[in-house]
UniProtKB/TrEMBL annotation:
Entries under InterPro entries matching the protein: Luciferase-like_dom, Luciferase-like_sf, SsuD_RutA_monooxygenase
Protein name according to UniProt: Luciferase-like domain-containing protein
Keyword list, A-Z: Flavoprotein, FMN, Monooxygenase, Oxidoreductase
Annotated Luciferase-like domain residues: 18-221
Keyword Lipoprotein: no
Record Pfam families: Bac_luciferase
Length: 288
């Protein structure tokens, strides 16, 4: 269990839809020895949820009251965000936090809060996946500080330099989320720094997903430049690969570690989560 890192993973809903509350929870998590605080990224959720906070404002508040805790949205649907704006937001937050940002990425879904259809955004999964891949290319180019030239199906960036660069010398670690049985998210995840299979039902399901991603990762490393290393990489070492799992507070993570997990994200029911509940879990301390 010593290799497992632990994160508090909170939906920014109702009682938690206040950046001051998030900052307070982040400070408590750092003091209690947790490794990260990750937040959901949504603009709407189904009933009974009513209030929703912006993840970037909440993460900024958390960064201001912590020094060690890794932070990030888990996960951001890139098809809902302009890549140029997100490049500025991620770099700015990474500079503010002294290199503590991890970017979780997914294609998003309409079924939880009709977040695409109610705002006239792209409803088709395949199209959003293509938009996601384009956005990722733009982000990685922007984080280098060199001029970005991109003419794609969905986005254009015409000779723009994005400065300041992120504080992390090799860019911000990217974790790709996806349902564990879907091939395309696995292939996408293999090109980046981590994989977050959502809605897992068992450690065996995780083990199968990890094996598939590692196969794709071997293929990707043979054909593409390696992705930027994660925060735990040391000079001259091979970039490690992170696998995150979301587990309820009372679930034993050991079988998931055996299946390949490197991060455990403690999750909460988005329809009933309270500030008191999260505080109690934080106070109990992380898995070790």
């Amino acid at each position: 269990m010593t290799s497992l890192k632990s994160a508090v993973w909170i939906p920014l809903f109702d009682e938690l839809a206040d950046p001051r509350v998030v900052a307070s929870l982040a400070a408590a998590a750092e003091e209690a020895g947790w490794d990260a605080l990750f937040v959901w990224d949504h603009v709407r959720w189904r009933s009974p949820v009513r209030a929703v906070a912006d993840p970037w404002v909440a993460l900024t508040a958390a960064a201001m009251v912590t020094e060690r805790l890794r932070l990030g949205p888990m996960v951001t649907p890139l098809a809902r965000r302009r890549p140029a704006v997100l490049a500025r937001q991620t770099a700015s937050l990474d500079v503010l936090s002294n290199g503590r940002l991890t970017l979780g990425v997914g294609i998003g879904a309409d079924r939880f809060g009709e977040e695409f259809s109610r705002f006239g955004d792209e409803p088709d999964d395949r199209t959003r996946a293509a938009m996601t891949d384009e956005s990722l290319d733009i982000l990685r180019g922007a984080w280098t500080g060199e001029p970005v030239h991109h003419q794609g199906t969905h986005y254009t960036v015409n000779d723009v330099e994005f400065l300041p660069k992120p504080a992390q010398p090799d860019g911000i670690p990217i974790w790709i989320a996806g349902f564990p049985g879907n091939t395309r998210p696995r292939r996408r995840a293999a090109r980046y720094n981590g994989f977050f299979p959502v809605n897992l039902t068992s450690p065996d399901e995780l083990a199968e997903a990890v094996a598939a991603v590692q196969t794709f990762r071997t293929e990707a490393l043979q054909s593409d430049p390696p992705a930027p290393p994660s925060d735990s990489t040391t000079a001259g070492s091979v970039a490690p690969y992170d696998v995150a799992v979301a587990l309820e507070p009372d679930v034993d993570p050991a079988p998931y570690v055996a299946a390949g997990a490197t991060w455990s994200l403690t999750e909460f029911d988005p329809h009933s989560v309270t500030q008191a509940e999260v505080k109690a879990v934080i106070a109990d301390g992380p898995f070790r």
